[in-house]
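Q: I'm building a small set of examples for a reading group on sequence design. Run inverse folding on the following structure and report the sequence directly after it, with nothing in between.
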């Protein structure tokens, strides 16, 4: 990979930081890395990734740490609850300091302002591993599994339905990703200030849809309208990070009409796949029959976090995008 010239420093804060061509380049490499991982055993030899965690994660930590090891590098997991980051020390200073010590930083945090702060003074790639606004690493894994399921490298014209909680990072980045890649994305969830997508996201997707070959991302009223003839049906957790008590009961009642059931899946296209970025609660955002059934590709989706992130890190650290 060293035969390519080094390009300027890039950060990844949301999937729309990347062009369609850049996403395709990353996914092409991810597919190759999945096929022949041994060919890339020293791609990031002696490179170090620092993983900052304000929010816990199984898939993010294991996939990043394993991926760096498989490419000859090293990953350090750092829990921000044990640190002065954002309190005694600013995120801007933290980014400057870490740039002197490691080759890239991933951060799984509560807000986009934290990601932006890390990037201000950083001279190394800052990668958003989840915030309140986006989840770009998940998007790459999702796009890869959709390509594999559809046996194509071009998702133009494919349709994706997301139902449930549509005021969250996964929904937002799916809408952006689908627009960029030429897909038709329909999302549906409860109405109201607690559930409506942020208007800035809708405005961004409207702008993305104007690009050559772009797709669309729209909000529709019902789960049935979203899922009708869809190639992929996607949902995500309704109760992220411990919503409890009366708030949980109220939220369950509002979201239950958007549960993915076997009946709802019959509205999708023949051969449609079911997706969930995990963790999943059977009986909440989907029934057990759906997630454990033949249409589910959730574990292929989870595995691709490893392959897609390896490709992303290689491209960013070696400055090839």
């Amino acid at each position: 990979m060293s035969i390519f010239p080094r390009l300027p420093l890039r950060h990844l804060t949301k999937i729309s930081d990347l062009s369609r061509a850049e996403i395709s380049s990353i996914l092409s490499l991810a597919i190759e890395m999945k096929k022949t991982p041994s060919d890339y055993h020293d791609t990031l030899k002696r490179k170090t990734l620092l993983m900052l965690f304000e929010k816990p994660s199984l898939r993010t930590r294991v996939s990043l740490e394993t991926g760096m090891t498989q490419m000859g590098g090293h990953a350090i997991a750092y829990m921000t609850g044990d640190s002065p980051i954002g309190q005694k020390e600013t995120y801007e200073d933290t980014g400057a300091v870490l740039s002197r010590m490691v080759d890239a930083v991933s951060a799984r945090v509560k807000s986009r302002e934290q990601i932006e702060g890390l990037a201000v003074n950083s001279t190394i790639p800052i990668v958003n591993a989840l915030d309140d606004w986006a989840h770009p690493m998940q998007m790459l894994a999702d796009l890869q599994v959709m390509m594999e399921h559809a046996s194509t490298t071009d998702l133009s014209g494919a349709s994706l339905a997301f139902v449930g909680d549509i005021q969250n990072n996964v929904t937002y980045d799916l809408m952006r990703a689908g627009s960029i890649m030429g897909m038709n994305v329909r999302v549906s969830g409860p109405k109201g200030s607690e559930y409506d997508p942020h208007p800035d996201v809708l405005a961004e997707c409207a702008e993305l849809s104007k690009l050559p070959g772009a797709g669309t991302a729209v909000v529709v009223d019902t789960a049935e309208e979203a899922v009708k003839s869809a190639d992929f049906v996607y949902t995500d957790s309704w109760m992220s990070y411990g919503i409890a008590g009366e708030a949980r009961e109220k939220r369950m009642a509002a979201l239950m009409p958007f549960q993915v059931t076997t009946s709802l899946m019959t509205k999708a296209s023949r051969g449609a796949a079911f997706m969930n970025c995990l963790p999943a609660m059977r009986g909440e955002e989907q029934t057990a029959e759906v997630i454990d059934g033949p249409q589910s590709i959730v574990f292929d989706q989870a595995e691709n976090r490893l392959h897609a992130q390896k490709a992303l890190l290689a491209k960013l650290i070696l400055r090839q995008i």
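The beta strands are 48-53, 74-79, 104-108, 126-130, 159-163, 184-188, 216-219, 232-235, 273-276.
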